[in-house]
Write a structure and sequence with these properties.
alpha+beta, six-stranded mixed β-sheet, five-stranded antiparallel β-sheet, globular
Length: about 475
Amino acid sequence: MNTPIRRLALVVLVLFTALLLATTWIQFVTADDLRERPGNRRTLIESYARERGAILVDGTAVARSEAADGDLAWIRIYDQATRYAHVTGYWSFTYGAGLGLERASNGVLSGSDDSLFYQRLVDVVTGRPPQGATLELTIDPAVQAAAVEALGDRRGAAVALDPRTGAILAMVSRPSFDPNALSSHQLSAVDEAYAELNADPAQPLVNRAIAGDLYPPGSTYKLVVAAAALESGRFQADSELEGGLTYTLPGTETTLPNFGGAACDPEGRPTLARSVQVSCNTSFAWLAGEVGEEALREQSEQFGFGQSVDVPMTVTPSTYPDDPDEAQVALTGIGQHEVRVTPLQVAMISAAIANDGVTMTPYLVDTVRNRDLEVIDATEERALSRAVSASTASALTEMMVSVVEAGSGVNARIEGVQVAGKTGTAEYGDTGGAHAWFTGFAPADDPQIAVAVVVESATDNWTGETGGLVAAPVARAMLEAGVQP
């Protein structure tokens, strides 16, 4: 064999080897990724040949499949669509599984998950048409409805938890959207609806309860600071703090005032309990410096900051800033600087206090059932961490009760039910806007529900929408709906 032929044979061998490797890579390594791509029409058409599982709230379907005419044998229907949009997400021929449980639990709902292998096998043998599994959620429809109605058209989010288990009783994000517009078989209309939603500056597709641009927590973070102070052993509820009319941030000439310019105590020495009750800025800025950055970060992490949680949708971790200077540490004491949270995280803080100091892992799916209604998976309650001792939780509860009974959270009071809570008003940006917060739980002596509510500033120029005025009434409506007689 002469040299040119040997070279040609070598080139052919290299090409066949490359082809073999590429085929192997596509068929085995990247097969799942290619199959799950939203634009894969073949996979999507195949998925529409079987009935997708329902999503149930208290036995009622909030997402279900209905037989349809044409190549696409099923269409996804969302009842009470805007009320549950960020919980369910959407299932679209054009855009696939989007947001919410439709994306996070796609394998189970579509019937392709490994847990449904034996069902698929039985379906093949018996000739039954394939079908996805059903999700039974932890949502309490009364609490969800109360949150939706109380928030109204305002931007924001609301979350409710069972502090004893971590079950999510409500998850609301506003503004909302109609998933039916994206699940329609009128594909041109779907494209128009999707483009309109993505172009909306209000970002209705963002689930503000667990993701998106995180919020400064404002004075709700004072619960974390108070917890760290109590856990240090250096402070008790009746410990006096430095709390004058203003506080000069360390290393600067910048002074921090109290809300409304009022004194927290006539002598400028409010106790820790009094500082929580009236949400004293100056005393908590001072206290943050006394407790220190490391203790505040560790305490935040015990409540769930920085931890990756799937409910099963992935929750964006809340954060305490890295390497703040002394002035910035003081600002974190009032939930400012670069402290950032999700409403779910704030609800977890109250839930941990309500649960004798134990943070439970939040979850949204209670059980998964196959087509024969057999439970194939059930979420087990699981502790995430011990945030604080039982004694610290008890002390914090007493302080939070005083906030609602005689402090900044009086608008969360419920006749005949003792409510524990904390207000917050969180500034953001450089234009004077502020978000309104409230978090708490009830009944204080036997907690059944913990909540967090954030109402975004209506304008960039804050006009008095404090947590006590705006967010507390929303929380009250949720607590009333969730407390069982």
